[in-house]
Amino acid sequence: MPLIDIQVMEGVFTKDEKARMIEAVTRGFGSVAGAAMAEATSTRIHEIKPGSWGYGGRVFSLEDAQAIKARG
Protein backbone atom coordinates (compact mmCIF):
# COMPACT_ATOMS: atom_id res chain seq x y z
CA MET A 1 0.00 0.00 0.00
CA PRO A 2 1.58 3.34 0.99
CA LEU A 3 5.30 3.80 0.49
CA ILE A 4 7.31 6.42 2.37
CA ASP A 5 10.80 7.27 1.11
CA ILE A 6 13.31 9.09 3.31
CA GLN A 7 16.54 10.38 1.82
CA VAL A 8 19.52 11.07 4.09
CA MET A 9 23.23 11.42 3.56
CA GLU A 10 25.25 8.26 4.03
CA GLY A 11 27.28 8.22 7.23
CA VAL A 12 25.17 10.69 9.21
CA PHE A 13 22.73 8.40 11.03
CA THR A 14 23.37 5.19 12.94
CA LYS A 15 21.49 1.97 12.32
CA ASP A 16 19.48 2.61 15.51
CA GLU A 17 18.60 6.17 14.47
CA LYS A 18 17.40 4.95 11.07
CA ALA A 19 15.22 2.31 12.75
CA ARG A 20 13.76 5.01 15.01
CA MET A 21 13.06 7.21 11.96
CA ILE A 22 11.17 4.40 10.27
CA GLU A 23 9.11 3.75 13.39
CA ALA A 24 8.35 7.43 14.04
CA VAL A 25 7.45 8.30 10.44
CA THR A 26 5.19 5.25 10.15
CA ARG A 27 3.55 6.07 13.48
CA GLY A 28 3.01 9.69 12.37
CA PHE A 29 1.46 8.56 9.10
CA GLY A 30 -0.76 6.14 10.99
CA SER A 31 -1.99 8.91 13.28
CA VAL A 32 -3.60 10.49 10.21
CA ALA A 33 -4.32 7.50 7.99
CA GLY A 34 -5.25 4.97 10.69
CA ALA A 35 -3.58 1.98 12.30
CA ALA A 36 -4.54 -0.50 9.55
CA MET A 37 -2.99 1.76 6.92
CA ALA A 38 0.18 2.20 9.02
CA GLU A 39 0.53 -1.58 9.29
CA ALA A 40 0.42 -1.79 5.49
CA THR A 41 2.97 1.00 5.00
CA SER A 42 6.44 0.36 3.62
CA THR A 43 9.15 2.83 4.61
CA ARG A 44 12.58 3.02 2.96
CA ILE A 45 15.66 5.02 3.80
CA HIS A 46 17.85 5.92 0.85
CA GLU A 47 21.39 6.92 1.76
CA ILE A 48 22.96 9.38 -0.66
CA LYS A 49 26.74 9.40 -0.91
CA PRO A 50 28.48 12.57 0.26
CA GLY A 51 29.27 14.74 -2.74
CA SER A 52 26.12 13.58 -4.54
CA TRP A 53 23.78 16.01 -2.80
CA GLY A 54 23.54 19.72 -3.38
CA TYR A 55 21.40 22.72 -2.62
CA GLY A 56 21.60 26.32 -3.67
CA GLY A 57 24.08 25.38 -6.36
CA ARG A 58 26.70 23.98 -3.99
CA VAL A 59 27.69 20.48 -2.92
CA PHE A 60 26.37 19.43 0.48
CA SER A 61 29.19 17.60 2.30
CA LEU A 62 29.17 14.99 5.03
CA GLU A 63 30.60 17.62 7.37
CA ASP A 64 27.70 19.97 6.53
CA ALA A 65 25.16 17.26 7.35
CA GLN A 66 26.92 16.26 10.56
CA ALA A 67 27.08 19.90 11.68
CA ILE A 68 23.33 20.29 11.16
CA LYS A 69 22.66 17.06 13.05
CA ALA A 70 24.90 18.20 15.92
CA ARG A 71 22.78 21.33 16.38
CA GLY A 72 19.91 19.04 17.37
Strand content: 25-35%
What is the overall pLDDT average?
Answer: 95
Rg, Å, rounded: 14 Å
* Global structural class: alpha+beta
Q: Which term fits the overall shape?
A: elongated
Strand order of the largest sheet: 1-2
The span between the termini is 33 Å
Q: Determine the fraction of residues in helical runs and give it as a percent range.
A: 40-55%
Poorly predicted regions are none
Q: Order of SSEs, N→C?
A: EHHEEEH
**Largest sheet, if any?**
2 strands, parallel
Work out the helix count.
Answer: 3
Number of strands: 4
Describe this structure as you would to a colleague.
The protein has 72 residues and is of the alpha+beta class. It is 46% helix and 25% strand. It is built from three helices and four strands. Strands 1-2 form a two-stranded parallel ribbon. It has a two-stranded antiparallel ribbon with strand order 3-4.
Compose a concise summary of this entry.
Helix content is 46%, strand content 25%.
Helix-strand blueprint:
Elements: E1 3-9, H1 15-33, H2 35-39, E2 42-48, E3 54-55, E4 58-59, H3 62-70
Parallel strand pairs: 1-2
Antiparallel strand pairs: 3-4
